[in-house]
Each structure stands twice: as C-alpha cells, then as structure tokens.
Specification:
The protein is an alpha/beta fold. 28% of the residues lie in helices and 27% in strands. The protein has a single domain, classed as Nitrilase/N-carbamoyl-D-aminoacid amidohydrolase (4-Layer Sandwich). The chain contains seven helices and 18 strands.
Amino acid sequence: MNRVAALQMTSGGNLEANLQQAAELIDRAVKQGAKLLVLPEYFAYHGCRDVAAIAEKEQSPAGPARAFLSEQAKLHQIWIVGGTIPVAQSSDSAHLVPTPHNSRAMASCFVVDDKGTEVACYQKMHLFDVQVDDAKGSYRESDDYCHGDQPVVVDTPFGRLGLSICYDLRFPELYRYLADQGAELIVVPSAFTAKTGEAHWQLLLRARAVENLSYVIGANMGDRSHPKQPAWGGSAIVDPWGNVLSELKDGQGLAIADVDLDYLKKLRQKMPVHEHRRFSVVKPSH
C-alpha cells in the first residue's frame, strides 16, 4: 500500500502566504506518512489578478511556484501533483489551438518526483465559462486561459496516474480515456465553487471512480464563506468501489488514505467493465 494525501487550502492574493500555507500542509502530510501529495487548483495564485504577468514568471522551472514544488518534493522525498500554475505559451507550442489572445496562459498541472524533477505536465482541457448563482456570478476562465488538448497519464511508484483539473470532472469521456491508458489513480486538483460543489463535487468524484474502477483524489480549495468567490472544499479520496476513504469539509486540512493496487486489480478482474464496453473514446484532435 501507498499513502496519498489531498491538501485543502484557503489561498488568497498573497503568493508568499499561499506558499507558506502549502509548505505547512505538506509537512503535516509527510509526518503522517504520505508519499504522493495533491495540491488544489490555483494553490499559489488563487485570488491573484494579473494572470499574464504571473504566467510569464512561471514559464521557466525557476518560477516561484514551480521552484517551490521542486524544492518541497526534493526536501521531503515525495511526489507532488502541483495543482495548477498559470504558464505562458511558448513559441514552440504548435499543438495549441491558435488564438488572437497571445497573452492567455495555460492552466498547467505539474507532476514533480521525489528528486524535484518535473516529470509530467497536463494543461487543463475544459475551461470554466459558466454562470453560477453565487456572489461572483459569472466565471470566464477563457478570458485568461487557453485550453489544452492532450490527456496525460504518467507512471509513478504508486501506480499509473491520470491527470485532470476541476471542471474536467464533468466530462466523463476524459476519464474513460485516462482509464484506457492504464490510469489506476486519477487526481482532480480543483477550486470548485461552493454552489456547484455542494450539489455535485463528491457525486462526480465517486462517479468517476466507480465507472473507471480507479482511485480518485480530489484536492479542493475550501473557503465557503469567502465574500467574493466561495469555494466548497470537501477534498476527498475515493476508492474504485466508490467508498470515500477520507474527506474534509471546509477550511484548511488534509484528506489522507492508503491506496491498494492489489485491491484495485481484484475488482477489475471480478468486474471487467473495460472489456465489456461497446463504445470507445478516441484521443481529441487538435
């Protein structure tokens, strides 16, 4: 078995304070034996306004948040899924959808190994352009970000890891594709709103786990009383049978649980849903 943790944060507009909060939660998780840690979406920059300027700073691995992830992973000898960080598009990003808004960033989720090396990066595919009945009302991620177009699965010591981010959770075809690529654990760093999170967050985490017979780790922002942009929290680790192994409610904290790949494999042998499918999911075209 391997112990994994979802970190729930209450990040604000101060980068240094956000990184300090993350460092404290990482230290707590490590002391409880976690070897794979998942941070929430926007963990370093939630509430920061100038996305384009941040994205330029984070284009290099020496950027503040990317360097922080590398340092923490190396220090504690752990693997970290680093939520999301805005990263400017590089000139060689030929696979990206052409856009006249060249200043728009990519919401990038880095996987950092226990040596501090970035071993994978997933760019958020589904952007949150919706109306929500809350204090903010209108959310338009596409004003600041371009969507990615490449699903990502990476091998880790804890199992084959599929990457997704927040609003992706509503698109089951992505998760089926990740499962088809061998994903045994799927991470969902998020900043789910309080309104939509109350209605659907855990329901969707459990659905993605059950339909793919995979572990799902959802790390969310948790600040339900925020006056402008309330986030639901509810970070949770769900097993392949849909059981919630560990969960939080509001505020800062950890959800920690053990992942048992032998259990997962036995379930997949007993109920080989992947072999019984009559429809396939193909890789998105660009």
